[in-house]
Design brief:
By secondary structure, this protein is an alpha+beta fold. The protein has one domain (about 45-200): Lipocalin (Beta Barrel), CATH 2.40.128.460. It is about 15% helix and about 40% strand. It is built from two helices and twelve strands; from the N terminus they run αββββββββαββββ. The protein has helices at about 1-30, 145-150, and strands spanning about 45-55, 55-65, 70-75, 85-90, 95-100, 110-115, 125-130, 135, 155-160, 165-170, 185-190, 195-200. The strands form three sheets. The chain has a four-stranded antiparallel sheet, with no helix packed on it. The longest helix is centred in the first third of the chain and has 31 residues, at about 1-30. It is flat.
Amino acid sequence: MYRFILMALLGALFLMGCSSEPAQQEAEQQEAAPEQQPAQPQDNTVSYTEQLVAGGLSFKVRTTGQGSQRSLTIVVERPDGQPTQIDEAIEGSVTNSVVTDLNNNTKPELLVFVSGSGSGSYGKVYGYEFEREYWGELTIPALPAELEKDYMGHDEFEIGDNRLVRTFPVYLETDPNCCPTGGKHRITYILDNALNFVVEKVE
C-alpha cells in the first residue's frame, strides 16, 4: 500500500517537472529576445522654400530636414500640362535657387546651389532644363586638376553675364581651414546645348 502511494507521488512529480520545462524555456526565450526599437520618424521640417516663375512655368523648390542629410523637392507647374516633380537626396543646405537661360534656347533652367555640411562646406550645383513636357539634367565638370591642390571647399556660386560663376578661397600649404591666405580662384562656365557646363575661363 505504502509502495503504491510512493510510486504515485513520484509519477506526479515527474509529470509536473516535464510540463514546466516548455514554460520555462518559453520564458527564457522571451527574456533573451531583443527589444524592438521604434522606427525613427522622418524629419519633415521645411528648411528651405522658394517659388520662381519663368517662361510660363512655375517652380517650387523646397527642402525638408535639419541635419546634414536633407530631401530636395522641385515641383514644376505648367499652364497646360501635368506638374513635374523631381526628388533628390542632398548633403548640406540650399543657399539659393535661380531660373536662367544660359544657353539662350528659350528653355528655362533651374539651378539650385547647395553648401555641404562639415567644415569644408563643399559646394554643389543641381541644375535642370525644362520644356513643355520634358526636362533634362545639367552636368558640371570636376574641378580642373591644377586647382585641386589649393582647394578645400567654401564654394560660392552666382550667375553673371549669362554664365555660371564659381569662386572659392585658395589655401596655401600651411593654412588652417579657417584662414586661407592665397586669395581666390574664379571659374566661369558656359552652358552648351547638350546641357553640359564647359569651363570658359579660370582666374
